[in-house]
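User: Can you predict the 3D structure for this chain?
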Amino acid sequence: MDKILLNGMAFYGYHGLFEEEKKLGQRFSVDAELKFSLKKPGKSDDMNDSIDYGDAYELVKEVMEGKPVNLLEALAETISERLFQSYSILEACRIRITKPDPPIPGHYRSVAAEIFRERNE
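Assistant: Here is the predicted structure, written as structure tokens:
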């Protein structure tokens, strides 16, 4: 399936289980695959037939920089729901949220949650 990719969107948010995360905040990275046919916009060269990258970024930003939640899974689910509400042409999406340097014991480069959702689930 065709897709638009929004890679490495960077945000600062206050999400996490630990009080320090909610107080101090931290960096997050989001990758989004927006799956739908690019044939019509490819032929028409008309933005009205596609999904505007900037608009999709702003939607993700609102979630990531908005109300704090505990889990990356909740952020990903909210983003996917908002994408489906906003774009009727969207057939499926994959959302990956990465937390660099998580405040948990051990040595990690990052932790992440990834979901794949289809419109008719």
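The helical segments are 19-24, 39-44, 53-64, 72-86. The two ends are 17 Å apart (CA to CA).
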